[in-house]
Amino acid sequence: MFPIDESMLSQLACDVCGTMLDVVLAGPVSANADAVRWIASVQISGEIAATVEIETDLVIARWIACRMFFIDVFDVEEDHLRDALGEIVNVIGGNVKGILSGGECDLSLPNVEETCSLPVADADHTVVARLSCEGLPFIVRLTETRCAALTA
After folding, report:
1. Distance of alpha carbon 28 from its chain centroid, rounded?
2. Nearest-angstrom CA–CA distance, 47 and 3
């Protein structure tokens, strides 16, 4: 399993969002299962294989885009949402990659999707930081995608 626990992942996400956006992430909040969610992810490959995801709802995705691009909420377009969430997950993923491998891995380009499906279930090899932003869910998930025992 990873040397990153829930507390460390939470702190990393709080530091990234605080530094990049001047946004304060708070303690856990439960997700609304009916909400349209945005999920941004990056893949880490090499010495380790993992996925870093952030999951939030449309309100927070819009708010993050406003903060990142200094635009009014009424001017936010889908490309702004994708770019903002992609950049946040890319920076969080880069920090995770550095902690896990010392840099001996590759980081994929971000993938950002809007989904109406049920919330993502947490796998056995997953670390989850259930945070909130402005009282709404902001979830960061680190999932091992290849067991070390299988690659040894």
Report:
1. 15
2. 14
Q: DSSP label at 146?
A: S
Domain 6-146 falls under CATH 3.40.1550.10? yes
**69: which residues sit within 8 A by CB, 6+ positions away?**
80, 83, 84
Q: What is the pLDDT of residue 117?
A: 56
Question: CA-based angle 56:118:91, to the nearest 5?
Answer: 30
Task: Please give the Cα distance from 89 to 43 (Å, whole number).
Answer: 10
Using an 8 Å Cβ cutoff, are 152 and 49 in contact? no
H or E, element range at 22: none
Phi-psi region of 19 (alpha: psi -120 to 50; beta: other; left: phi over 0): alpha
Across the chain, mean pLDDT equals: 85
Is the pLDDT score of 32 beyond 90?
Answer: no
